[in-house]
Amino acid sequence: MKKYHLLTPGPTPIPPNVAAKSAEPILHHRTKEFSAIFNSVQEGLKYVFQTKNDVLVIMGSGTAAMEAAVANTTSAGDKVLVCSVGSFGERWAKLCQAYGVDAEVIREESGMPVNPQKVQDALKKNPAIKAVFLQHTETSAGTVNDLKTIGKIVSETPAILVVDAISGLGGEELRMDEWNLDVVVSGSQKGLMTAPGLSMASLSPKGWKAVETSKHPKFYWDFKRIKKSIPDGETPWTPAVTLLQSLNEALRMIKEETIEKVWEKHRRMAKAAQAGVKALGFSLLSSQPCSVLTAAKLPEGFDGGLLIKKMLNDYGVSVAGGQDNLKGKIFRLAHMGYIDAFDLVVGFTALEKTLGNMGYKIPAPGKAAMEAATALV
Amino acid sequence: MKKYHLLTPGPTPIPPNVAAKSAEPILHHRTKEFSAIFNSVQEGLKYVFQTKNDVLVIMGSGTAAMEAAVANTTSAGDKVLVCSVGSFGERWAKLCQAYGVDAEVIREESGMPVNPQKVQDALKKNPAIKAVFLQHTETSAGTVNDLKTIGKIVSETPAILVVDAISGLGGEELRMDEWNLDVVVSGSQKGLMTAPGLSMASLSPKGWKAVETSKHPKFYWDFKRIKKSIPDGETPWTPAVTLLQSLNEALRMIKEETIEKVWEKHRRMAKAAQAGVKALGFSLLSSQPCSVLTAAKLPEGFDGGLLIKKMLNDYGVSVAGGQDNLKGKIFRLAHMGYIDAFDLVVGFTALEKTLGNMGYKIPAPGKAAMEAATALV
Fold it and tell me: Which residue, of A224, A227, A293, B186, has the fewest CB within 10 Å?
């Protein structure tokens, strides 16, 4: 009978009308009825990506689209630059390694964004660099990178800029075309408010040129093959029909709200969450916090793993802990997609109660939840 | 207001209780609640595959699992044998080509199964062959291969046997362990009565040995990584939670019915469909027809494409046409998964009506539907 509250960075809560779409009778994928949904999803994704380019839809979580980006735009032995500001930056490095791609890695300290100057310097020093990989928002640290500045820098070189916007898309401002982003990948289960199972990739004309020379083996997520079938309103392989039915409804909601208002709502939520963290007496992990997730540092010696577990077990409230070297040391509160201001109030109330139960002295009882409530308009 | 009837080989109709599961509130995938579902799916899949081996679940349609099988068990330059009895056999050949794997291809005439003697001869002539790829049921032709005999032949050599059981699993008899099958791949949207988006691969100990030496680049569908997380009741990447909720329910239904009874039902449906085709005055494409789909040859010069289109437009009944060199020359009636005897009656009624509308003289009006009805028990 316990009611669950999901404040995790994917899967995120699914609006009931979006969930209901996935239970509708299944359509065959070679029909005009399916093509109408497919084309509508295509238009909706272009709007959310802020691009005129096609958006390729493949099955898999975001990591599938990240791998597909590496497999389609590089070749073994290529020199590339990876900018890592957390665990998902490291994933780019691991993917390059798996594909025999020679990656130079810029690693920033936990919580710091990529320094655009370092990107510029690296590209100047090594003009053979064919691609720059980075995150839009780094979910492990709650950091947003300055894509606009980095996009300009990379656009003045022969390299392409490949962006993981898995947790950022549909929450954090992103303008693919205006910011000169060459490859943007994302997933269905975060800002897009849909169940996990779909991922996307969009490529600029410069990105497509890189595809032409790529030599890695690929078949199922061969970008050229997927692009070729878009004008026919279909996919080369059987698509995840029910997930696309859901995604279409979620995109309709975003269009109705307008993407600018969606970004604004996320900014407001982030500010409220940051104030809530401070009210609890903690500090933010990130020096350049993103709009979709807030990461807070716990006091030295505090058992962050237990905090997460107790919040879920005692109150049914699910937030995320730290990953890799941050394990046990932070908590992360997602405020993306369908998560709203009252969910934040619930999250901070559960945090305060659990922290209290664990013996932590709350500096100003009740203040964190009321800070969260400032996100209400 | 038109009611649609889906008699296509994937997606197949989804039972309402299975569809409803996908609309339930989303669970986070690192929870004991999700692990319980994951473990139950694991047990259910082992039962349907008739194996003691783990069954790896990946996101994607069946082609993703086919590619993953090639990427995980071979290396560039390897010699392999592909047995092709239709379009999906050709897919194995194309996948091998994409990965630089040197495939010798045995091609049988349309409608013929693989001749096991040819497999034995090829393996004898070329002991360097590392893997044999073939279909359980070839969906483009409605043919079932003799996996039991071929399994025995391959098991006596160092080669592994890799089986595409995408359309056959959960309909056509398949006994992975007893028949010495080393790699079996399948998908969610056929006999497993679930929406498209999930695919599976199971490997024998001999299959896992082949994985150890494979050198292709891979990350997202790296079999070793996926296997490693199974004992923890999870997947390395965010899984398609809602599709797994559905699949768990579909597997529960199959277990309740027992797999032997499910196979028997499909055999009965196939016999009824074959009799229906003959009653319409047509002949079967396949000399060794499978239990999950019936392919019928249309008279010379008859427009098969128009037949399919008219059945869908006029009556809302969706059957499949021919692919590649069989385009326009055949129709294919699926009777897999949740498709039942009354659906077959509907299918044959729509066929007879549409054929009549197109000027074809029905030999014995009403007979085909009554032959289909013999599948009722």
Answer: A224
